[in-house]
Write a structure and sequence with these properties.
3 strands, elongated, 65% helix, mainly alpha, 3-stranded antiparallel β-sheet
């Protein structure tokens, strides 16, 4: 598995820009962390083969982070699990709401 911080990192990389990449500064903003903290998180994610680093094209000082195939697969699996859990909770909420509405209707109350 991955840590919650790594999951947030994967979300940030995948969703920050349409290109599916993000710089360290952009990830720091997204994660509400300091740059040096994000650098450490990215380093650990690189070692776990979740993301890869590259240098910016126009500015070699900029580090660009993108997902690896493994990172994409894990993020996709987690997203599907979270979607299913949110749907289960929503369906349970709607079922309780419907039950309460029917009970009130049966009692003649609004």
């Amino acid at each position: 598995g991955i840590t919650p911080q790594q999951h947030q990192l994967l979300l940030g990389v995948a969703g920050y820009r349409a290109a599916g990449t993000a710089t360290i500064s952009e990830l720091a903003e997204f994660l509400q962390e300091r740059n040096h903290s994000v650098v450490g998180l990215v380093e650990r994610a690189v070692k776990s083969e979740l993301v890869k680093r590259s240098r910016g094209v126009s500015d070699r000082r900029v580090v660009v982070v993108s997902l690896t195939a493994r990172g994409e697969r894990i993020l996709s699996e987690l997203s599907q699990l979270h979607y299913q859990e949110a749907k289960r909770v929503r369906d349970g909420f709607l079922a309780r709401k419907t039950f309460k509405r029917r009970k009130l209707d049966a009692e003649g109350k609004d």
